[in-house]
Design a protein that fits this description.
alpha+beta, 3-stranded antiparallel beta sheet, two-stranded antiparallel sheet, disordered C terminus
Amino acid sequence: MRRTVQFQAPERGAERESRHGAARQPEPLRTEFGFELPRGYVDESGTVHRSGVMRLATARDELVPLRDDRVRENSAYLSVVLISRVVTRIGTVEDIHPGVIEDLFASDLAFLQDFYRRINAEGHTRAAVNCPSCHEEFTVDLAGGRLGES
């Protein structure tokens, strides 16, 4: 069962009033984040799926995998089960289960693990990067579109 909920964070003093004294609406809490896999999931027919959606994790999402026999036998499998619980779609594939996550390329799994950490622990999808050519430092949004798109 999929559910999408929009929560509004409680207002704080600085959020209530802008610089000009006008009331400002707080941003609603985002519970789902889009992403683009670096390589993509290849399904049984050979179709490559790159775009997807990950939702915020609940306490249950982090506790239930600990009872999974595969996780008990191999603790490294925890991330596979956890990621499969919070990814709601990859391309047109909506039945995301551990088998789908197992079939991802290693770089895509690493991307999703980092993305999970960013949205659940840090609360955002931004990452600081350096240009390999000019060494300029800037920030990118991992939930954004493809390179060159806004």
